[in-house]
Amino acid sequence: MSTESSTSKETKNPAVDGSELIEFKDVTKRFGSNVVLDNLCFDVSSGKHVTLIGPSGSGKTTILRLLMTLVKPEEGTIKVAGEYLTHETKNGKLVPASERHSREVRKNIGMVFQQFNLFPNMKVLRNITEAPVHVLGLSKDEAEQRARELLELVGLTEHIDKYPSQLSGGQQQRVAIARALAMRPQVLLLDEVTSALDPELVAGVLDVLRDIAHTTDITMLCVTHEMNFARDISDDVLMFDEGRVIESGSPEKIFSEPEHERTREFLSAVL
Ligand SMILES: Nc1ncnc2c1ncn2[C@@H]1O[C@H](COP(=O)(O)OP(=O)(O)OP(=O)(O)O)[C@@H](O)[C@H]1O
């Protein structure tokens, strides 16, 4: 992974050891006059787990929303697995990609949101098989086989025939994780996935994610306020402030020896 910003101190990570799966190049995102991301550059190598930390409003979720094409950048380009996501630069101009192209590239990405967003009228099994059948074209049997394996991974085999309303929030979130993985994405985006949970349910969900991080080769980009979790799973941590990466590095470096005063302030408030 590497990061840099043309307006901030360049921060390069030496651990660039794989192909870049996610590439942000000079990405600027504005909402009206609010510059939320400011000329942002960073890469995530295949198989790495990268956590975004920083104060509320610093632009972390916007990065995940850009990757999901829920919002589009005003400037700059984003590549996933070597393909431009929404725009490419031609002769110095941003040229939009076709919707079809964006949709294809997006298939590499799965996301788990703060709210679980399960289909309330479908049982657990069908929540997981729906997209693989209708988007990937898997047979019902193949999709169900995949769903059963994933339900075992997230520890919910015995709940396969329940509706979401019959599950706890933590169990629903574990279904949402299984549902995202059922599409076999190369990248898993996690957006504060435990924030909506009662405190006693948080550990179960984080344990499942730790397990996935340690036993699969999926690339993860994670926004979290759970610093111990970030420390456990991350290869790299990016500290955001006002839409820029102000510091990046291994969890040991960021959590034990932060260089930037804003990082120290942020960590002393959350740790
Ligand atoms: N759809 C939108 N329309 C207008 N402003 C938006 C929109 N989405 C985000 N913003 C603004 O962009 C800024 C960054 O928001 P973002 O959610 O990316 O921050 P964040 O770092 O994830 O914060 P938090 O930790 O609180 O979730 C905020 O000022 C927010 O109000």
UniProtKB/TrEMBL annotation:
Record PROSITE patterns: ABC_TRANSPORTER_1, ABC_TRANSPORTER_2
GO MF term list: ABC-type amino acid transporter activity; ATP binding; ATP hydrolysis activity
Source domain of life: Bacteria
Cell compartment(s), UniProt: Cell membrane
Keyword line: Amino-acid transport, ATP-binding, Cell membrane, Membrane, Nucleotide-binding, Transport
Segment forming the signal sequence: none
Membrane topology: Peripheral membrane protein
Major subcellular location class: membrane
GO cellular component annotations of the record: plasma membrane
Residue ranges of every copy of the ABC transporter domain listed in the record: 22-267
Protein family per UniProt: Belongs to the ABC transporter superfamily.
Full protein name: Amino acid ABC transporter ATP-binding protein
